[in-house]
Amino acid sequence: MTSDGECVFCGIVADSVESSRVYEDDRVLAFMDLQPVTTGHVLVIPKVHAPFLADVDDELASEVFRVARTVAGALRVSAVPCDGVNLFLADGEAAFQEVFHLHLHVFPRTAGDGFRIAADWRVREREELDEVARQVRSGLARSAG
């Protein structure tokens, strides 16, 4: 949020908040992240305010990911150091979303750049995976209605 309570990304879309734009069309905007994970870190957002991924339709979600794919390709052939690319979308406070306007992070990676995700990476037993898969299928059935 900005100091006046406005969504900072909506302010960027409206040009009332400064940004370094990378790409723009009628529905999607990509700009440099003010606090980059690595040099070349770009944020891709829908121009319409939508706090979460579920708040956009399939077409707009596809457009956001299409632009992210294009930006990722551009990073790989640019002068920005880039041996790989991460896409990261934080959806909700528990997922560390800080700005509640849907945004997809696209950032270049190089060996030793320091970015890490700490997690419990242990291999799970098939029984546990099957149960979680059942729960997700149940959620799919409920959300499709």
Can you characterise this structure?
The protein has 145 residues and is of the alpha+beta class. The chain has a single domain, classed as HIT family, subunit A, CATH 3.30.428. The protein has three helices and five strands; from the N terminus they run H-E-E-E-H-E-E-H. The longest helix is centred in the middle third of the chain and has 20 residues, at 58-77. The protein is globular and about 50 Å long. It starts with 7 loop residues before the first helix and ends with a helix.
Shape: globular
How many domain units?
Answer: 1
Q: Please report the first level of CATH classification, the CATH class.
A: Alpha Beta
**How would you sum up the major sheet?**
5 strands, antiparallel
The helix/strand order is: HEEEHEEH
CATH architectural label: 2-Layer Sandwich
Instruction: Give the strand order of the largest sheet, numbering strands 1, 2, ... along the chain.
Output: 1-2-3-5-4
- Given the helix and strand composition, which structural class is it? alpha+beta
Number of helices: 3
Under CATH, the topology is which? HIT family, subunit A
Total strands: the figure is: 5
Distance between the termini: 34 Å
Superfamily (CATH H level) name? HIT-like
How confident is the prediction overall: mean pLDDT? 94
* Radius of gyration (Å): 17 Å
What percent strand? 15-25%
SSE layout and pairings?
Layout: H1 8-13, E1 21-24, E2 28-32, E3 42-46, H2 58-77, E4 84-88, E5 104-109, H3 126-144
